[in-house]
Amino acid sequence: MTARHSLVAVYADESCLGNGKSGATPGGLGALVEWRRPDGVVQRFDLWASEPDTTNNRMALRSVTDTFEALSRKGNQLSVLFTTDSRYIVDGMTSWVRGWIARGWRRKEGAVENLELWQAAVGAIAPHECQWNWVKGHAGHPQNEYANHLATRAAADQSASGGLIVSEFEEWWSGRPVRGGGSPRLVSPFPLVESFSPSRPLPG
């Protein structure tokens, strides 16, 4: 199945400083959004946000909601390849959510944790079609590493981009040290429209 709408590639990550420890745990999210113009040039945009006391899972969910809300601001209907190192998001969106919705937003064992955030994420996705893609975190994937950079920086300085802004990915990546003195890892190419395979739409 190919994309029915303009194809967008998103690389998202989350951070929580001191996650699971006592006291406040500031967190952040980061997303790198790529779009290929008709002339073939790939344009990139950054998005980040933060919370003063949160969890990794909350920020992972917000990475979905904040990104899709930003993509929807001009009434766009897009085909989105969403790449993250969060199994919580990929497994949730491709499997768990359907059962929760069928049971009236409940798990078999009881209440859904972060229910309002899951509902907000599902609502933000609704106008679009989405393929969910998992990558291993902290493994040198350029765009994933950059999303992590945005997320950890947002968590540390409690900042927000206020929407999509022109990306600094290329400057950041060119300045990264190369491990072992070898060649830098290649940036993931923009996905082929022909390879796009969206998940089934979630129930309303």
Describe the structure.
By secondary structure, the protein is of the alpha/beta class. The chain has one domain (6-195): Nucleotidyltransferase, domain 5 (2-Layer Sandwich), CATH 3.30.420. Helices cover 32% and strands 23% of the residues. The protein is built from five helices and six strands, in the order βββαβααβαβα. Strands 5-4-1-2-3-6 form a six-stranded mixed sheet. Helix 1 runs parallel beside helix 3 (115-125). The longest helix is centred in the first third of the chain and has 16 residues, at 56-71. The chain is globular. The model has no long low-confidence stretch (mean pLDDT 93).
Estimate percent helicity: 25-40%
Number of domains: 1
Count the E strands: 6
Within the CATH hierarchy, at the fold level, what is the topology?
Nucleotidyltransferase, domain 5
The unreliable regions are: none
CATH 4th-level superfamily: Ribonuclease H-like superfamily/Ribonuclease H
The appropriate CATH architecture is: 2-Layer Sandwich
Order of helices and strands: EEEHEHHEHEH
Strand order of the largest sheet: 5-4-1-2-3-6
Structural descriptors:
204 residues, alpha/beta, Nucleotidyltransferase, domain 5, six-stranded mixed beta sheet, 5 helices, 6 strands
Give a concise summary.
The chain is an alpha/beta fold and about 200 residues long. The protein has 5 helices and 6 strands. Strands 5-4-1-2-3-6 form a 6-stranded mixed sheet.
Any chance you could write out the topology, listing elements then pairs?
Layout: E1 6-16, E2 27-36, E3 42-51, H1 56-71, E4 78-84, H2 87-102, H3 115-125, E5 129-134, H4 142-157, E6 165-166, H5 169-174
Parallel strand pairs: 1-4, 4-5
Antiparallel strand pairs: 1-2, 2-3, 3-6
